[in-house]
Amino acid sequence: MTYNKALESYNQINTNIERPEKLILMLYEGALRFTNLAKKYIIEGNIEEKVKYIVKTSNIFIELINSLDFEKGGQIAYYLNGLYAYQLELLAKANVENEIKYLDDVIRVLKGLIEAWKEETGL
User: Fold this and answer.
1) 32: which of 6, 26, 40, 85 lies 20 to 30 Å off by Cα?
2) Do 103 and 90 form a contact (C-beta atoms < 8 A)?
3) Going by C-beta distance under 8 Å and a sequence separation of 6 or more, which residues neighbour residue 113?
4) Position 19 confidence tier, pLDDT thresholds 50, 70, 90
5) Which string of b and e fits 19-29 if b means at least 16 CB within 10 Å?
6) What integer is the mean pLDDT of 65-77?
7) Which of 29, 35, 75 is nearest to 52 (CA)?
8) What domains lie within the chain, and their CATH numbers?
9) Which position has the higher pLDDT, 91 or 1?
10) What's the distance, CA 4 to chain centroid?
């Protein structure tokens, strides 16, 4: 992908996000989708695809951690930092041990985050 195409794609996505809160929701929903796919591939025994989707989910959690504002967010930001870091641990365990139980925990947390975020932001 050329630089211009990448920039064009980014700008197209960026203009489709009406509110910054929508981006967080999209990240949560993407992480949920990728975690479900990783679970599917563990069940099917497709290691390559499992790793691919665990890495994608991990990257989303890393981005969420990097976007936290500890000054404005206060205790909530610190709580989310710990929660996101723990999800990264669970994803690593799921990857190494090939166990869906860890992904089930991540899925449960993501569903809770999505529900809470929608309530908080009115999305």
Assistant:
1) 6
2) yes
3) 28
4) confident
5) eeeeebbebbe
6) 93
7) 35
8) 20-121 (1.20.120.340)
9) 91
10) 27
Would you say 100 and 43 are in contact if contact means Cβ atoms under 8 Å apart? yes
- pLDDT value, residue 57: 98
CA distances for 48 relative to 37, 42, 52, 54, 58, angstroms: 12, 10, 6, 10, 15
Residue 122: DSSP 8-state:
T
**Is the Cβ–Cβ distance between 91 and 102 less than 8 Å?**
yes
CA–CA separation, 84 and 47 (whole Å): 24
The amino acid that residue 28 corresponds to is: Y
- Mean of the pLDDT values across residues 57-73? 95
Place of tokens 């641990």: 89
Is 31:60 a contact under the CB 8 Å cutoff?
yes
Q: How distant is the alpha carbon of residue 93 from its chain centre?
A: 16
Residues 41 and 33 sit within 8 Å (Cβ to Cβ): no
**N residues, the chain:** 123
Q: What is the mean pLDDT of residues 75-87?
A: 96
